[in-house]
Design brief:
The chain is of the alpha/beta class. The protein contains seven helices and ten strands. Strands 6-7-8-3-9-10 form a six-stranded mixed beta sheet, sandwiched between helices. Bound molecules: adenosine-5'-diphosphate and magnesium ion (MG). Magnesium ion binds next to α1.
């Protein structure tokens, strides 16, 4: 039986800058089933990132609600929301956002520390995740010594540090060549096969074809 792990109802977000209001999202009803692989596609500037930020509790809606695994996140204060995010969600963004002064392993270890993994398990846990993304041999390299694809795989390992049920990825292959993109996609498909719920924003229709569900966001709404 399928079960919605993410549900949004009439979700809307407007940004006010100066006298100008931008209606980034205009009422989105969305249901994402536990364990599914969903791609979100749509033109640039039409609200995809806004939707990801709201679904992941990184930002608050102007209107409507997000229910994450049974919890209406609008009822949570900021620290409860941060805890829910830390328990359930792993984020990956287009720009890898690794800490430049730290090695791959240390980047993952920091995330494990923040996730409350006991200190003595952090080093082995980080190595295990780097191995899972095929980067065990780069554990002691810094981001500047890695390719974009390798850095993004470190970012994926870091997103897994809290063993999240849901992976939210905003154009994770937007900056990669097609070989690196294929490697990242293989990892994501493996994670999906292992039971994770994967939500992926992409511009690439070939990638979207590999998803179980494709949602098109246009003008702040779901179209088709
Ligand atoms: N923090 C913000 N402040 C003001 N406007 C924003 C902000 N974030 C996004 N927007 C605007 O909201 C619209 C949707 O943006 P976004 O969700 O980033 O689209 P996409 O990810 O599909 O490219 C755009 O017009 C964008 O300029
Ligand atoms: Mg975006």
């Amino acid at each position: 039986m399928s079960e919605a792990i993410i549900r949004t109802t009439d979700l809307a977000k407007s940004y006010l800058s100066g006298d100008v209001t931008t209606h980034a999202l205009r009422g989105v009803d969305l249901e994402i089933q536990k364990g599914s692989f969903t791609c979100i596609i749509g033109p640039s500037g039409h609200g995809k990132s806004t939707l990801m930020h709201l679904v992941g509790g990184l930002d608050r809606p102007t209107q409507g609600s997000v229910v994450l695994d049974g919890t209406d996140i609008s009822r949570l204060d900021n620290s409860q929301l941060a805890k829910l995010r830390g328990d359930k969600i792993g984020f990956v963004f287009q720009f890898f956002n690794l800490l430049q002064g730290l090695t791959a392993r240390e980047n993952v270890e920091v995330a494990m520390m923040l996730a409350g993994v006991p200190e003595k398990e952090q080093a082995s846990g980080a190595l295990k995740l780097l191995d899972m993304v095929g980067l065990a041999e780069k554990a002691d390299s810094k981001p500047s010594q890695m390719s974009g694809g390798q850095q993004q795989r470190v970012a994926i390992a870091r997103a897994l540090a809290n063993d999240p049920a849901i992976l939210l990825m905003d154009e994770p292959t937007g900056n990669l060549d097609s070989a690196a993109e294929a490697e990242v996609m293989e990892i994501l498909q493996g994670l999906h096969a292992g039971g994770k719920t994967v939500v992926l924003v992409t511009h690439n229709n070939e990638i979207a074809k590999k998803a179980q569900h494709v949602i098109c966001v246009k003008d702040g709404r779901i179209s088709s």
